[in-house]
Design brief:
Order of helices and strands: HHEEEEHEEEHEEEHEEEHEEHEHHHHHH
Number of strands: 16
Helix content: 40-55%
Distance between the termini: 27 Å
Amino acid sequence: MLIKFSLKNLLSRPRRSLVSLAGIIIGVALFISVVLILKSAQAAFNKPLAEAGADMIVQLQGEPCVWSIVKLPTDLNPIPSKLIDKIKALDEVVVAEGALITWAFPVSNQSQAIRTQDPSGTSHAGLLASKDGKDTNGAPCTTGPAGSFCATGEHAASGQSNFSPIVVVGVNPDPVEIGPIKKSDLKNIQGRYFTKEDSYAVILDKDFARTRNLKLEDSIDIGPRLGNKVIGIIDPGYDAKIAGAQVFVPLKVAIEMAGRGEIVDIIFVKLKGGINTAVVKQKIKKALSNDTVTITTSRDYLSSVAGFSNLAQKLMLATFLIVVLIVFLLIAKTAFGSVLERSSEVGTLKAIGWQDQEIIKLIVMENSILGFAGGLLGSVLGYLVSLVYKINLVSALPYYLNPYPPCSQYLVKTLSAPVPIFINVFLFTILFAMIIQVCFGLLATLRILKLTPIQALRKL
């Protein structure tokens, strides 16, 4: 009976009810949209590390390498492979896996390539590891002049129209649950994965294979190596991946192509649970004997991708708290003001014999209905706002984790994550709106009840 009367009372004054409802909807939508946008962005930024199965990414940055047919991307420096064992030996580390990311340029565009024959008779091109041909074993490369890697400038002027490199990553032929291609990723492969005996065999990214019109058993030239057989095509999904590539080869092949000795340029590290990452960072730097090593964790990664310094993250937290305060005040003002406007109505009810408790029950019921409806509609509106924001948000891997050159003709993937639906957050917000609406409506009601019926009726 009370619910029917409360609904009828709200519907009899649609303008006042809609104004109160709008205030609640706006406040709740603001809160929900901020929460969902932050959660969606955090999920998108953390996804690449999670999909690589790693807690840490270890790299060395330095001056960009000078030109060579197969080079390390941008400013990545080589890490001797033997250092992976030092990292594995740390008590806090579960597993560590290295990979070698390279850029392989078309061999026809560089006169430094020399033709050789492998035992099977397949023709391919070798590389000079250094000016004197000696194994540099991870030392900075010195072959050739510095140059552009795009089909512009000096290379475009010389008629080299296709100078965009292929991104090639050397991976372990024994897949584990960490790295660019994990054991669990093999369910998405067409064909097969590498064996230890494979040499002139490659696995292609699905989109790259499509754009090059390549299929299983076809051959592809990558830098100095000609006639590589496509044994697999893998679908890595739509999101950007750390050490993602157009072409995957066995790690030993990538090492041979780079001609820099037994090296990797990225190490994936999985830690034991509850480990202090700051302590592990220091141990890894000590193991590598290099204080300039770049170690990226999920926290560092989120900060880098989002472009936030620690100060900016604190400002973001402050902004979130301000949003909560604004929502609180907006709903409170709406509830308090709408009840105070009903002074004359309360006076009329008292004049015809309504008891204070009956009036309080009526106001509580009406505000509960408004709070529930406003919270529900506001949650839906906030979710829609976060969807629109997510559609227009384009985020990419930070440059030091993105292996693709700026001039790449291949579509570089971006970071994305669906807008989460947190039922508990929605329920909490609806309950929060109802409680604020009821509490401040009750305060206003108690204030009005202090008036005599005549004083209240004078407000007509």
